[in-house]
Amino acid sequence: MIKAVLFDLDGTLLNRDLSVREFICDQYHRFYRFLGHISKEKYVSKFIELDCRGYVWKDKVYEQLVNEFNIHTITPEQLLEDYITQFKNSCVPYPNLIEMLEMLKDNNMKLGMITNGKGQFQMDNVVALGIEKYFDAILISEWEGCKKPEPQIFEKALRKLNVSASESLFVGDHPDNDVKAAENAGMKGIWKRDEYWGKIEADYIINDLSEIPIILKEAGKMESELLKIFDDKRNPIGVASREEVHKKGFWHETFQCWFVSKEEEKEYILLQKRSSQKKDYPNLLDITSAGHLLATETVQDGIREIKEEIGIDVSFNELISLGIFDYCVTREELIDKEIAHVFLYKSNHSLENFVLQEEEVSGMVKIELDAFYEFWLGKKEFVRIKGFDIDKDGNKVEINRLACKEDFVPHKNLYYETIIRWIYNAL
């Protein structure tokens, strides 16, 4: 089972050839008063020649440029500084980059990046592409003290992602530094074709980033969730992938279960803290357990979410049905229209009994139910949460603090008020 996909940066996610050409043209125009005695075509082509596809650091490149073109009014150091500070503004992504990353994250893939180069320079380029948020681990050779094709940097990345080599794929454009090095580390290699290298052998070969999810699906290593879809009157109208459901705004079914416990005559509501790995609302407090109902599932099958996410065995007969809530949220990137089947579970489990699914949940907290209700009615600005979080080393860290509304998944106030009233009626 593949749990993680790792990527090279330059030539794989970042179209370095186009980025370099765009940057060096811009640099020529920025410093035209110093470089005008050289034609732009000669300056650009010479830089690209000396750059050797990025394998020569630019201090050497600019020293040679200055000497060859008899540049006296600007120094190699000044040109290098411009490269370091301005290259990020010329970064060009390969087509389908964001769509591919989102699809992998939607399918709970862990994502990593291993790139050779200067630390801050490469990180600036990652940020410029707008992809930093998708990655669970980013390793840059200067900062790690080792580089591709050395196995140590691959092993470091796997440890950070908490996956084995056999559970991972590596995508890169360099046949030795990326593909063979990853395969030597025990991973499957995907070569992103670059005609410069001619014919290369690899486990998989792609021309476009959009092929990566296809490879995973065909290999049975990533399944796109198929959901039943409904019209506005809740009549079933077919099935669609989770991605299509959220893109086109189809009504679909979800399962929600709220845990309430009683301690010393006080009722508490239990909430999960969403994992930092989640694409939507990472690190925010949410429903005790919830998830989509697949096209092949009944409402009763929704109890699997409880066991998977928080490790508690519950039978459907132990749940109290609270009702069905039509939940609709529209954001720039999705339209979420849920037919939410909402349940209550009267829990006698201590928070210590909860075993969390790392990629989904990173903590559990409890809140006095009365205080929680007043909080969402606007009578309190803060509410006290108590529980635990799991740190990056897997240790439980106590939580005992005041929380504000920004700490919670931004369901509408009406949703919270309705659910809590339903809970009170069922207690």
Automatic annotation (TrEMBL):
Pfam families: HAD_2 (PF13419), NUDIX (PF00293)
GO molecular function: hydrolase activity
Domain of life, per lineage: Bacteria
Keywords: Hydrolase, Magnesium, Metal-binding
Cofactor(s) of this protein: Mg(2+)
Entries under InterPro entries matching the protein: HAD-like_hydrolase, HAD-like_sf, HAD-SF_hydro_IA, HAD-SF_hydro_IIIA, HAD_2, HAD_sf, NUDIX_hydrolase-like_dom_sf, NUDIX_hydrolase_dom
Domain Nudix hydrolase: start-end pairs: 250-389
PANTHER family xref list: GLYCERALDEHYDE 3-PHOSPHATE PHOSPHATASE, N-ACYLNEURAMINATE-9-PHOSPHATASE
Protein name according to UniProt: HAD-IIIA family hydrolase
Originating organism: Heyndrickxia vini
Lineage: Bacteria, Bacillati, Bacillota, Bacilli, Bacillales
